[in-house]
């Protein structure tokens, strides 16, 4: 069988840009050579001349809601979950295709109903549909009384089908829930620690207890599954890190103690600032009191409490932004992934998250490290087989016209993403068809 020989491109290996003239050779599913020396080729080899283009590892989206997005763009909290499960499955297939179009070759699920993530993973592996490598996530494990458990919201979370949330009060319920969901094929467990992040003020307390977090982690890890947590609160971040939660989502109210705990635990943080920023940007123009994101129990809201809420969200967002340089300086592992599929957050709009971090002072090459190397680390696959361009690694590779290590907006237009390989297999190819 012939090889793919990628020549004359600029190569970003997940950490740094390699010397000009580096050639990358792919054979089967693996990268077999990364060399500055000339490579002899034969008639069976496919040669890609990448002059003016960049070659880099496939991106990892670390907070991916596969089935969200039927009503993305509308200010609705339903996330599409009022629709039948079969329809959500098709939405997931579409979102998987979008991910590939934008050079995303791996995703870490971040909660879904109806075993959508597991089904998506299997359908992709069987070749029924095109999509990235999937780490399937469980439903959202919540405690009774969580805002998603309110009378006015729970119908679309759980009724009619195997909905988005699962109630897990107490250590034994949590243990059983994790056992069941992992037994059904989920590889990462999602805990909803508290309210907050973006559309709500972050409280100073948590729904899920330390004991419940600990048993979730212990049970998941004993089955070689990971745990992630929607974790905006200061105490939640510390408790989750100390308990061994692998991925801390949002981490809005992280402080120095939280950073220390996250580093000690070698946990990953998904800052996911875009949703918060976007929410604040448009919320002020809404009829918020009667609008689509009512406070907690869903009753119409007073203007006074609405103003209070927006002011609180803003203040907390400013805190998160102020902590970003501290997290980076301390060496916290940060990754890309935001709540795509939510209202105002269409799948495929990945460049907007990258652009936001660049605006906040993160160099583009560092953002790309978050999206490749760090993502693979979060999956537990860096140094093993993913997230880098090196001999022996899996050939998850992307060719772009343009250089995202100097301008992340290359990712705005999917026509800039010209070739996508996953496991050495072509997922998207505009290079050949363009000739
Ligand atoms: Zn989410």
Reported for the largest beta sheet, the result is:
7 strands, parallel
CATH architecture of the largest domain: Alpha-Beta Barrel
CATH superfamily of the largest domain: Metal-dependent hydrolases
Number of strands: 19
Structural class: alpha/beta
Tell me the strand percentage band: 15-25%
Topology-level CATH name of the largest domain? TIM Barrel
What characteristic shape results from the CA principal axes? Answer: globular
Helical residues, percent: 25-40%
Number of domains: 2
- The poorly predicted ranges are none
CATH class of the largest domain: Alpha Beta
Cα-to-Cα separation, first versus last residue: 23 Å
Textual characterization of the structure:
- By secondary structure, the chain is α/β, with parallel strands linked by helices.
- The protein has two domains: 102 residues, Roll (Urease, subunit C, domain 1); 290 residues, TIM Barrel.
- It has twelve helices and 19 strands.
- The protein has a seven-stranded parallel sheet, with helices on both faces. Strands 2-6-17-18-19 form a five-stranded mixed sheet. It has a four-stranded mixed sheet with strand order 4-3-1-5, with no helix packed on it.
- The longest helix has 28 residues.
- It starts with a strand and ends with a helix.
- The model has no long low-confidence stretch (mean pLDDT 91).
- The structure holds zinc ion (ZN).
